[in-house]
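Listing 4. Sequential folding, example run.
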Amino acid sequence: MNLIILDPKDIHEGKVLITGQKLEHILSHIKPVTGDTLKAGILNGSIGEGIVTEISDSGLALALDLQNPPPSPLPLKLILAMPRPKVLNRVIQHAASMGIKEIFIIKTWRVEKSYWETPMLEEENLRKQMITGLEQSRDTILPVIQIRKRFKPFVEDELPEIIKGALALAAHPAGKIECPRGVTSPVTLAIGPEGGFIPYEIEALQKIGFETVSLGERILRVETAIPFIIGRLF
């Protein structure tokens, strides 16, 4: 935890009392003492420091000075075919830590129907994973995650508006063009499931303006592909 993210409703007159699991984590990993200064931020708000004023059975009290803006968001929207549930948490954490603020989790032909039954898609879990990623990267702005279980209506009715003004790229093993480097414009990036998009899906994406790009000779897992591509693009 590189940043303690605080709920605005818990802050009163520039002070906060931390309890529960967050307190346990801080005491176990950071091990502060009275007078220490900790990095803190308000969820969806400013960042700064908190001075430990008291540690007791009631909790850990911080006097806050939060005046700095969070890091700038990454100029990238992520279109993500639903990965295996056990991978989803890691992907969401990584995406949040890299500054991605808009994520669409979509159904594609190779996504197994059973994946949609996982409790990991529940709002509470997604929020937990996003906050974990934000704490890692010292950011406070929650991404917006939207779920779309019908590929064709999403691509035809919504995606053309989403990609307006952006470079639209679909990572695909059979792509003939290398993923670009040093991009200065906003990007909308589509990542397929294990095995990639099927030809119909690639054609549908190309029809609305996506360019298919290759990541090279290696086939990467989705949790590896996302940071790899972002490292190349920006």
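-- end of first protein; second protein begins --
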Amino acid sequence: MRVDEYLREDALGLARLVHSGAVAPHEVMEACLARLAAANPRVNAVVMLQADEALERLKAQPRDARPFYGLPYFIKDLHAPVAGLPLAHGSRAFAGSCFPFDSETVVRLRRAGFSIIGRTNSPEFGLSATTEPRLHGATRNPWSLAHSAGGSSGGAGAAVAAGILPATHATDSAGSIRIPASANGLVGLKPTRGLLASGPHRGDPNHGISHEHAITRSVRDCAAILDATAGPDVGAPYATLPPAEPFLSAIERPPPRLRVAYTLASFFTGEAPHAEVAGAVEGAVRLLEVQGHEVAAAAPEFDGPALLAAIMTVLQAGLAALIDARETELGRALEPDELEPASRAAVAFGRSISGRTYAAQFPVINRAVRSIGQFFTRYDLLVTPTLVRPPAPLGELSTDEADLDRFNATLFGYAPYTFPFNATGQPAASLPLGWSAAGLPIGVQVVARFGQDTTLLQVARSLEIATRWGERRAPL
């Protein structure tokens, strides 16, 4: 398989070629590795590679019936165990750390036929909207190497945008799937809370704030991978059941006529976005109106700064607990240079939180969740920007900032639209519906009612068909 042939296909297209006998599975892997060798030195998306054993296995066993048999797949370097594959969370403090088992999501990816061959870059503990950890260095945006690929799944976004592979794993606690999808001109879905398994190592990931799924080039890949991974695992504290109809078959139909709300105002500051971002949102809304949906300017009413503070309190308390466990494992305190300044500040804050303060965050979250839930009784979809402006230059969102309030103000000044839906658990996706005058991608966020991932994917597919965004590729 030539690399140019490989680059033309999404994951389902590659799978079709394998199952038809047009190419052997090992040829797909070899094309991926060739593209990796050419592109990764420039973007630094993949930070760990273990492909030799998988490649030899594919050569020995030409194909089987699994839907994605032999296709390469990376797992983000954050919160996702893969047996025998180090998991550092983007941090020197965890360099070399390894789990002896696969997470349930990884088990299901393997069951679908994917070959897990490495990890993509993540900022330390996923704390930033850019991916520039000291451990592995900065990930660069394939659309412009001077710009950020987003975060915290920036390595995943850059790997897909650079053509290293058409889809890969990502996680999201405040926008970490949607932000890099926006920055890299890709599809990034945070599914409904509880739709994907989080075990066995995590029961209730940050009280339902944290999610995982994928960043993909096409909507159909997003749907097909969700079909392969959705559903509760044994012992899950809560779960959302997948629909009876597979997502992949459902997106063959257009969505029903929907009530669509849209807003440009930041949920953090109330300010409007960059003009090019506003134009992308307004263009998407006009297209939805042309497609027959009822459109209105409206937004849920809730205290955005209070909700963000509550979410970050929960997340930073969880980070402090993770660091405490690591220090117990090591039998020593971490050295100052084993954590980046922003991480040290977050851990210090997390350690200062009392049980009473921690518990007080949940009524704050509940008030916002109820208000946003009421909003979605009146509307089926909410359309917003994903980021306040086109992708930021590298270095602008530095984790060298030790003042936590200043760091978070910069971070959520840049990405003020995604975090509420981690608290509410509603499905939310960034779709590549705009480009700046400089040729940088601009994502538009579309949010659906809780449990309505099918509707969201149908809308995404209808917009994909109308705009043909998949024909645009990063100049790298």
